[in-house]
Amino acid sequence: MLRIVALTSEHLEAVRHFNERMRHAGHPLAFELPEGSRAEAGRGLISSTDYIVADESGVHGGILAVDHPAVLSGQDVPVTNYQSPLSEGIIEPRYRSAGMLLLRFAERRSPLAYMVGMGSDSSPLARLLKAAGWSVGLSRFQFRVHRPRRFLSELRLAHSSRFRSMVSSAAGWTGAASAGLAILQRRRSGLAGFSAQIEKEWGDWADVIWKQFRERCSFAIRRDAAVLPELFPASDSRLVMVRIDHHSRPAGWAACFDSPMRNHPHFGDLRVGSILDCVAAPEAMAATAILADTELARRGVDVVITNQTHRLWCDGFSAAGFLAGPSNYVVALSPALAARCGDRDSIHVTRGDGDGRIHL
């Protein structure tokens, strides 16, 4: 009989066999069950526990539960982000019940829960969540191109057919792409009184900024100075932390990655700048987007991307000259969480939440 238990060191050999079976079956895993226990790690304001689906024959699936402090309709509440759900039912029919078993366990353990990623709102997991009554939608994908010729030569979507490849190559070499993008990416906001600086640590200034944004969120993981070092550790060498001031007062920040891709399925070998997360006063959002984009462009990226759900941030990036593109970043809310969110356009979920940065 299948049961769900917390992963401990005694299960690691069975986990290795599970991962081997999945690989041998040719399943294209984006992740595997951990072959070292995270359940025994230290706990802070954000804590995580790995759970597995097991029976007497071994391990047949698992899920990671990450518990966060959050703000929900003005109240501080605990919320769980479930990551990396895996079921052997994908390759073995007798374990098809493992996926639904994991989902029901997740809802019982933490009714206020969400998941992100999934690659498509029609993926097997997204379809399972919809069938279980979860609210499933796509976050908005926005981008700004800095090197049009290289962007068009490397972007996989631009070469998905011979005709698209011919058009994108011609546009890149003739300069038509540069001219067209310059018009499309024209900024509609200014920077009067705003300045940017690179920070090495999160400080009290982050609390000032969070207070200006918090009340605008129907749902968000807390982004204050106590939580941010766990969300975005300053020790992460990939992190570019941009602080925005307005007339010398803290007004916004952006947590960014500068990632050289290698044969990426969407970005090829582009150097991609990602604005993973950002918090700002509403009047500073466009300036925060512009100055974060400017810093990443200064570092030499080919394109800057971001995923946003909050209406004010979507508008801010549009004012900063970002264009909208097709999104593959799914945001799914449990029935209990969705019922308490109120204004869905004021949910703040980004690539910085959950395992959204895994492919960056």
Q: Can you walk me through this structure?
A:
This protein has about 350 residues and is an alpha+beta fold. The protein folds into 2 domains: about 5-110, Aminopeptidase (3-Layer(aba) Sandwich), CATH 3.40.630; about 140-325, Aminopeptidase (3-Layer(aba) Sandwich), CATH 3.40.630. The chain contains 11 helices and 16 strands. Helix 4 (about 150-155) runs antiparallel to helix 5 and helix 9 (about 285-300) crosses helix 10.
pLDDT < 50 runs, ≥5 residues: none
Largest sheet: 9 strands, mixed
Task: Please provide the ordered H/E string of secondary-structure elements.
Answer: EHEEEHEHEEHHHEHEHEEEHEHEEHE
Structural class: alpha+beta
* DSSP strand tally: 16
The CATH homologous superfamily of the largest domain corresponds to Gcn5-related N-acetyltransferase (GNAT)
Q: Do you know the CATH topology of the largest domain?
A: Aminopeptidase
Question: In CATH's first tier, which class of the largest domain applies?
Answer: Alpha Beta
**Average pLDDT number:** 88
Q: What is the percent of helical residues?
A: 25-40%
What is the gyration radius calculated from CA atoms? 21 Å
